[in-house]
Design goal:
Layout (H helix, E strand, L loop, with lengths): L1 H11 L1 E2 L30 H8 L5 H8 L31 H4 L4 E2 L7 H11 L12 E4 L8 E5 L4 H9 L4 E4 L16 H11 L3 E4 L2 H5 L4 H8 L2 E9 L8 E13 H11 L8 E3 L5 E11 L4 H7 L3 E5 L3 H10 L6 E5 L1 H6 L1 H15 L5 E4 L14
Parallel strand pairs: 4-5, 4-13, 5-6, 10-11, 11-12
Antiparallel strand pairs: 1-2, 3-6, 7-8, 8-10, 9-12
The protein binds zinc ion (ZN).
Zinc ion (ZN) binds next to helix 13.
């Protein structure tokens, strides 16, 4: 489903003005990863990144590359766009995510939807009923009758992202993470979140959250991650309570060809947008692996499901000491091995697919809208020191 819609969008859109600004030279890893390098179409990072990364995933190389990953281009776009080289390991084909991934805007014909129309399309793709109980998804700010000409997807509603959206005359910013997950008593501009609210409202930009409903849905965060990593026979790690059997948190599948943990870790590294923290691995680099569990974002609550799935490797983010240590102790040093990636990076990969899916749903209703993906790196870490 996703593949079809992506191809539709990729082939029918005309690249339009307002391309993202060039990324910093070392904004993303190069190498053998599968995702599409959007930025090459917008004067961005390809060759410079290639030099910086050289496809190396070894700790030293990654740390050196990442150490100044935001030193120059933090305020620029495309800071987080994945690298260019596509492989035959199952990731999306180069054209799949190209036009939107780097922030290139696609101009469509047809009348613009209202914000209310877009909400209907969003509900079709990522039903609010799939969200976790603790989550807060949906519209954060915006007037339902206002026309939406331009939509931007981003992982985090940071002030930098909000300002970028307003500067690009975006009418609707859709972020994965909620701005207001917990209750607030004020949105005065004396608070960081209040500043974002004011920036968006004063700039005429609505804000919408697609969070765990986007995780759980078909074509959601972990689905896309599984696809990019080349997994087949994919199923949820934890099936959604209120959804289809193929909906739920996390995914598990198998590689077409078994490989070593070290090589698979390099594939993961290459697939991710470059971030300072790189990729951490627990396990024997020479062990042969084929069954892979993934969960975009923080997935340390899913260890029981991962073990039950028989996965050789678990790829997720934000693995703290105790959950990771206990998982390794429980496994007696064996499987599942762990690959810990950047929370931001693992979820950014979803944005191009989400953008194209929404664009296609709106197109099917004869709405014209520009959809773009923020290339701003909102991973909070700036550099690491390694031995
Ligand atoms: Zn997240």
């Amino acid at each position: 489903m996703q593949d079809e819609s992506r191809n539709d969008a990729a082939t029918s859109g005309d690249p339009q003005a307002t391309p993202p600004e060039p990324a910093s030279a070392n904004a993303a890893p190069a190498g053998t990863g599968s995702p599409e390098p959007a930025p090459d179409q917008s004067g961005s990072p390809g060759s410079a990144r290639d030099e910086a990364a050289q496809g190396e995933a070894a700790p030293d190389g990654a740390a050196a590359q990442a150490s100044d990953s935001r030193s120059e281009g933090q305020s620029e776009d495309v800071g987080a766009v994945p690298a260019a080289d596509a492989t035959d390991d199952g990731g999306p084909a180069p054209d799949d995510v190209g036009d939107t991934a780097g922030g290139t805007v696609e101009q469509r014909d047809g009348s613009n939807p209202t914000l209310g129309d877009v909400l209907v399309a969003v509900e079709e793709l990522w039903p609010a009923s799939l969200a976790e109980e603790w989550d807060r998804v949906g519209l954060v700010a915006g007037r339902l009758h206002r026309p939406v000409r331009r939509i931007m997807f981003a992982v985090d509603p940071t002030l930098e992202v909000a300002r970028d959206a307003v500067r690009r005359e975006v009418d609707l910013l859709i972020t994965h993470h909620p701005l207001l997950l917990r209750g607030v008593n004020s949105v005065a501009d004396t608070t960081a979140k209040g500043e974002v609210v004011h920036e968006l409202i004063e700039g005429g930009c609505a804000l919408l959250t697609v969070h765990t409903n986007g995780d759980s849905a078909v074509g959601g965060v972990s689905d896309v991650l599984a696809d990019i990593l080349g997994l087949t026979d994919v199923a949820p790690l934890a099936v959604a309570d209120a959804g289809l059997p193929e909906e739920g948190i996390g995914r598990v599948g198998r590689l077409e060809q078994a490989t070593t943990l070290g090589d698979f870790a390099r594939r993961v590294f290459s697939a991710m947008p470059a971030v300072a923290g790189g990729v951490r691995v627990a396990g024997d680099a020479d062990a042969v692996v084929s069954r892979i569990a993934v969960c975009g974002g923080a997935g340390d609550s899913l260890f029981d499901a991962v073990r039950a799935s028989g996965a050789d490797v678990y790829v997720t983010a934000d693995l703290r000491h105790h959950p990771a240590s206990e998982a390794r102790e429980t496994a007696r040093g064996e499987r599942p091995f762990l690959i810990d990636v950047s929370h931001f990076a693992s979820e950014w990969l979803w944005l191009p697919a989400a953008a194209e899916a929404l664009e296609n749903v709106l197109l099917d209703q004869d709405f014209g809208v520009d959809v773009m993906v923020s290339g701003i790196n909102t991973d909070p870490w700036d550099f690491v020191l390694t031995p």
